[in-house]
Amino acid sequence: MINRILAQYTRGVGESKKFALNGIIISFATGISNLIFLVGLEFGLVGYFWSYIIAYSLATIFLVIWVKQIRVISITSISKEVGKSLLGYSIPLIPNSVMWWLINGSSRYFINGFVGIAANGVFAVSSRIPALINVVSQIFSQAWQLSAFEEVGEGSNSSFYTRIYELYSSVLFIATSVFIVVMKPLLALIFSVEFFNAWQPAPFLLLGTVFSALSGFVGVAYTATKKTKGVFKTSIYGGISSLLMNLLFIPTTGIIGAGFSSMISFFIMFIIRYFDTKDLVFLDINWKKFYSTILVILIQSLILFMNFSNITEFLLSLILFFIILMINRKAFEVISFLWNSIKDIFKIKKKNRK
Q1: pLDDT for 86-114, tens place per residue?
Q2: Is the Cα torsion angle 87, 89, 91, 97 positive or negative in sign?
Q3: Exposed e or buried b for every residue in 105-125, given b needs 16+ CB within 10 A?
Q4: Are 258 and 246 in contact (CB under 8 A)?
Q5: Which long-range contacts (CB under 8 A, 24 or more apart) does 185-188 make?
């Protein structure tokens, strides 16, 4: 918690490189410590915790030493007015975090109760499949928050928000489609037979992750305008819908129902936030494109449950992927930008060598 607070402060004062380096130190220190304590010294679970303690301690020491602004932090200098403003902003975000846990974590308790511990293990494996999309959305979210705050400061810019949404949603939907195409062959290659059924709830969990990311995208409007009560209010609807969906689907459809309830809950939250933030920032969403993409992905998911041969299943899924690619052509702008950036980096290196 201390490291996270200091890291966010580091980013806030414009030390973006040191903020990024903090994350790199944590990753490397955790990896090396795990090798020492788990592989070398065989400390087991205790060694795992020591790895985290050491990694975050080292990163925190780095921030304190190298970020000069941290040394002049004085909590006593905060006025009552600023304190009230900070509390008014942050307090609604606390129960909001509880609601997000409720949506993400409650499914496992329902699976334990209605299906069994073994099914929970399979679902845990399935929950790791959308992890890469989660990581990408978290990285984007951090950058997006800064941009959104700047845009709000200059006045609400609907076209800017809409353009970023179009690019972001297109990339997320295409990534989801790619995962669905390669999911079964990958699971068969990586996991044992006992965990192969983890593919079943995965398509719905992937879509749920997309709706979660889009919900977070829209939710930035609350934090950027400092109206965070809306964050909590809309999260409550998502939390309640998650509980109801879990009770409805898990007893009858098992882990597939858990994935489906996650997808529906995050979709409900996204839709509610979209309409609730219209007065803050107007997003001009192409709903025809949005629902067409979801429909194609759901058909792509349904094919996995059919008794087709592996080759037929793969080819049909691949055809639908290209349809999604055509619907979400905006993603090509991101690919083009990344490709040009890579070419520019290589040009700079060649000039430096000369």
Answers
A1: 888 888 888 777 777 777 677 888 888 88
A2: negative
A3: ebbbebbeebbeeebbebbeb
A4: yes
A5: 185/310, 185/314
Supply the pLDDT for residue 204: 93
Which tokens hold the place of 73? 């932090």
Question: CA-to-CA distance for 235 and 251, rounded, in angstroms?
Answer: 24
- Give the mean pLDDT of 51-57: 93
3-state secondary structure of 115: coil
CA gyration radius for the chain? 22
Region of 75 on the Ramachandran plot (φ > 0 left; ψ -120 to 50 alpha; else beta)? alpha
- Does the pLDDT value for residue 335 go beyond 70? no
Give dist(CA 351, CA 312) in Å, integer. 50
Please list, residue by residue across 137-170, b when 16 or more beta carbons sit within 10 angstroms of its beta carbon and e when fewer do: beebbeebeeebeebbeeeebeeebbebbbbbbb
CA atoms within 13 A on the CB side of 24: 7
Q: How many angstroms separate the CA atoms of 84 and 222, rounded? A: 18
Give the residue carrying structure tokens 């993603």. 331
Helices 202-224 & 131-154 angle (0-180, nearest 10): 20
One-letter amino acid identity for 283? L
Mean pLDDT of the chain: 82
> Mean pLDDT: which of 166-170, 217-221, 316-320 is highest?
316-320
201 has pLDDT over 60: yes
Q: Which two tokens stand for residue 211?
A: 């709706």
The one-letter code for the residue type at 10 is T
Residue 248 CB neighbour total at 10 angstroms: 14
| Runs of H (alpha helix) within the chain | 2-12, 16-34, 45-66, 68-71, 80-90, 93-114, 117-128, 131-154, 158-190, 202-224, 229-253, 255-276, 287-305, 310-327, 331-353
Q: Is 201 left (phi over 0), alpha (psi -120 to 50) or beta?
A: alpha
Report DSSP state, residue 279: T
Would you tell me how many other CB atoms lie within 10 Å of the CB of residue 308?
Answer: 14
